[in-house]
Write a structure and sequence with these properties.
mainly alpha
């Protein structure tokens, strides 16, 4: 699972940023324009709301899980969600959680 989570974390960083860079480097980028694009039609609105709700639920669980397992620097995954992509932060946290669980089992 560690390898799978790692591959997904890398893909979750690179693929969204490919499109983010197209947007940011294009003419007239603004944050309000970006948000308008997210909710431009029912399909994009569905995906936008899906990600917002899923990322919120994941973040709440992740903070609790990280504290229960004694994982340090859990706030980094929130920053990655906000500044890189949820598609990166989620599998990266799951990778680090898996490593923590294995270390605890070995101890």
């Amino acid at each position: 699972m560690i390898v799978i989570y790692g591959v997904l974390a890398v893909a979750g960083a690179l693929l969204p940023w490919y499109f983010n860079m197209q947007l940011v480097l294009g003419p007239g980028f603004t944050l309000p324009g970006f948000l308008a694009g997210v909710f431009a039609n029912p399909a994009s609105s569905s995906i936008g709301v899906d990600i917002l709700v899923g990322a919120t639920a994941f973040t709440l669980w992740m903070v609790r899980e990280a504290r229960l397992l004694g994982m340090r620097h859990w706030w980094v995954y929130i920053a990655i969600t906000l500044f890189v992509a949820f598609a990166c932060a989620c599998p990266l946290f799951l990778l680090m959680r898996e490593r923590r669980l294995r270390a605890m089992a070995a101890a």
